[in-house]
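User: Um, any thoughts?
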Amino acid sequence: MHEHISRLHALAGKAERLILGLMSGTSLDGLDVALCRIKNHGTATTAEVLKFETVNYDDTFRERVNAVFSRRDVDLQHLCLLNPWVALQHAKIILACLKKWGYMAEQIDLIASHGQTIYHSPKSFHQQADYSNATLQIGDGDHLACATGIITISDFRQKHIASGGEGAPLAMYGDHLIFGSATENRILLNIGGIANLSWLPSSQLPEEVLSSDIGPGNTLMDALIRQQDGKQQFDADARLARTGSVSQTLLGALKDHPFFKLPLPKTIGPELFNLDYVDGAISRSACHGLSLADQLATLNRFSADCIVEIIEEVTTNVDAYTVYTSGGGIHNSLLMENIAKKLPEIEIQSSQKLGIDPDAKEALLFALLANECVAGQSIKLGSAIPPIRPLTMGKVSFPD
């Protein structure tokens, strides 16, 4: 047996594993690094986030990635160079975090790296008959493993597509393993650049679990602020949006897109929901005179309405459920207020109520996928059409 396979075999047999979960989302704000202690596998899994930090990206990182992010026409040499470069930047962040936290690389069993999505194109978006669903993440796993000395599991989304899915959202796999409840119907709502949810019925039947993208979370609001004010990455606590008024005319135009009529589950990204989308809605609705504050207020309501409408669709004929929230959008108090106003009878809690820092949840979920890749069994969830075969997700990269 090759020593690398022998090492993996030994990792699979451990009672618990220390796994670094990495998440870099479409907001390009920074790298989430979660040091997780994970015991067992499958539905016996227990997980604890020992350390967590979001390390902000500098302007150089954002500028270089933005040159290819969600763009159809890119410099292929630049894209080729970015793939290892992003991994090396992430490796530097990892090693700095471990040093800060008092850990040696040798103590870490695995890195679970989501990478950086640069383009996501489900068939419903590209509509080309000869091509299937597709997605692309950069930040090469081999470079990450060699630069840190830690076995790395990466590129999780390709297996989901190869098995009939759209490559996203993958949250339901980890959500089902550690957040399912026999006494409570739960929605795990994550509001990042794009909002998504997992529906976890109290039946705990895998075929009844559902996960879907919803539509825009923070992405449109953030993009508008960055365009209008280069000094700000986002409208902190919706301070500017609160001074504006919602344009019902523009709101109606924003909601008028075939994506919202697609059946669940579905996925999407900034490839659709970007400033061109906003400009098109403004043109169709003749709302050219709106102030920045009014536009932000309207986009905030747009995100809230999209979220609520999918929650209501998922919970049709369900008497009671609780929503547990995570992601950067939960820090937007106006967005959360807009959601709560439309769900007045529903309890909305942070995932902290379930013992998980809401900012660390996505990084934890990829650590769980890496744990299942090494120590678990194939996971079969949901009732997607076409059906998605049981999955083991992630590609293994050794340090040498």
About this structure: Residues 76-101 form the longest helix (26 residues).
